[in-house]
């Protein structure tokens, strides 16, 4: 591509990142090569440091430098609620929204016969055991509103039936600022079905 | 963002790359953390290696592990033509298109009073001296079709007046596969002005 092996190798690796194609990978690499001291070397160091120091939390599956993670050990957080998300990125999204003060369980994916991903791969046994703890009152299933996400949520709700907790899932409806005209029928239907009375 | 300093630092650096926003930076970092052995550590090593080994060619400004670069020292390439491009990325584009077999001069930008980038910053003196070499017959100005690019090309063409070389610039016109209906007036006008007779 660039003719030089070091550059080509770097572009190749960058282009394998999600959201980066060969073109944006080339731009990124050129950008780095233009700013070696201020960007390129710090990036190499930061990647190395993160790779060595970031662990998966043994309790919830979150990523942190410590395990159990800062959320699991934060005593100001409500131990009564566990929010089940598919990926760490979803956990981050929840945290950014600042609407949830409980703890998490990160599945690390969804049930998938195709990829041979079963309940054990998603740590559902571990979740059920956590739910059995009398401190836990509710498990909120915050999987994506996809077929796989909803199937996984349904399966988990079944598994939690005799765990002595309330099980809930996020509401479907019109996104804030969403225009009916641009909404898909499914969302519109869900919003209508779970309409709220004044 | 992610709460963890190592991860946040990494996301911060990624989000400063061109074409990556905070969101795609988060996705990229999560992707890396999920594949440490196969992606994350190799990437850190590759960045380090490139940062240490890639130099700017003392003749043309290209990036390569050797200086003079592989293109400048490639005896199969035509020494009679020098193609002037703004950035190394443009040189790569020319090389990918396999249409040019001469050598290059990479400006590393365009003339800009705003950024205080003058002729010396673009190595134009060096280019003029190369053009004076009797082996060099033509300088092709392949700057972008932007105002700055064209201004820079015009300035260089003036500087080359007494260097004893032909000076040319890339043709403007309809891109291959381009539909008139979607073309801007400027391009259409240029295509019409430089129409070719059968």
Protein described:
2 copies of one chain form a homodimer. By secondary structure, the first copy, chain A, is an alpha/beta fold. Chain A folds into 2 domains: about 5-55, RecR Domain 1 (Helicase, Ruva Protein, domain 3, Orthogonal Bundle); about 65-195, Dna Topoisomerase Vi A Subunit, Chain: A, domain 2 (3-Layer(aba) Sandwich), CATH 3.40.1360.10. Chain A contains 8 helices and 6 strands, in the order H-H-H-E-E-H-E-H-E-H-E-H-E-H. The first copy, chain A, has helices at about 5-15, 20-35, 35-55, 70-75, 90-95, 125-130, 145-160, 185-195, and strands at about 55, 65, 80-85, 105, 140, 165-170. The first copy, chain A, has a 4-stranded parallel beta sheet. A two-stranded antiparallel sheet of chain A has the order 1-2. In chain A, helix 1 (about 5-15) packs across helix 2 (about 20-35). The longest helix of chain A has 18 residues, at about 35-55. The relative contact order of chain A is 0.08. The model of chain A has no long low-confidence stretch (mean pLDDT about 90).
